UniProtKB/TrEMBL annotation:
Any GO CC annotation of this UniProt entry: bacterial-type flagellum basal body
Subcellular localization: Cell inner membrane; Cell membrane
One GO BP annotation of this record: chemotaxis
Membrane topology listed for this record: Single-pass membrane protein
Family recorded in the similarity comment: Belongs to the FliL family.
Keyword Cell inner membrane in annotation: yes
Entry keyword set: Cell inner membrane, Cell membrane, Cell projection, Chemotaxis, Cilium, Flagellar rotation, Flagellum, Membrane, Transmembrane, Transmembrane helix
Function: Controls the rotational direction of flagella during chemotaxis.
Protein source organism: Sagittula marina
Name of the molecule in the record: Flagellar protein FliL
UniProt xrefs under Pfam families: FliL
Top-level taxon of origin: Bacteria
């Protein structure tokens, strides 16, 4: 009889252990979820959600977010001028699956954002045709693989920006905005 009561107690212990493990797992998942929300929202928002932040702090925290939406990558809008370029269509080389080189068309619509407060900014509009010519010269040297993925886009923008700064003889060019980039 003692063995039977010991077996029944032994049978309850694994069930209790299993329940405790499940509760611990659920609590761990809840803590991980709360931590993920806290990291993604940021410390200021978490404190505001918990009611520890003052309302004046919330208004100040919301104000820069609105300013960021109206600014281009941290640049004040009133000093940035965006000048579009005519559509550029050039031939680029591509390699087929069999290894044969072929020609593709690259169509590019872009605009240059520059800061009019920086010395030499007035040179940009005057040298716009020279900029376009330099861009075409660079683009014709590209291979289709040079434009693949986000790294290809970053390289393209940085090379165009480098050329724009060299031709305008100024650091006024800040960024290129690409409306269309089609390889056909």
């Amino acid at each position: 009889m003692a063995e039977t009561s010991g077996a029944s107690q032994g049978g309850k212990t694994p069930k209790k252990t299993l329940v405790l493990r499940l509760v611990a797992l659920v609590l761990l998942c809840a803590a991980a979820l709360a931590g993920g929300v806290a990291v993604s929202a940021g410390p200021d928002r978490v404190m505001a959600l918990l009611g520890f932040a003052k309302s004046a702090d919330n208004d100040e925290a919301a104000q820069p977010a609105e300013d960021d939406a109206s600014a281009s990558h941290g640049l004040p809008r009133e000093h940035i001028i965006v000048t579009p370029f005519q559509e550029i269509i050039v031939n680029i080389t591509a390699t087929t699956a069999t290894g044969r080189e072929t020609s593709r068309f690259l169509k590019l619509n872009l605009a240059l954002a520059y800061d009019d407060r920086i010395a030499g900014a007035e040179n940009i509009e005057a040298r716009k045709l020279f900029l376009r010519d330099s861009f075409q010269e660079y683009l014709r040297q590209l291979n289709e693989d040079d434009l693949r993925g986000s790294i290809g886009l970053v390289r393209l923008k940085s090379e165009l920006l480098r050329r724009a700064r060299a031709i305008s003889d100024s650091d006024a060019p800040q960024e290129f905005l690409i409306a269309d980039l089609i390889v056909q």
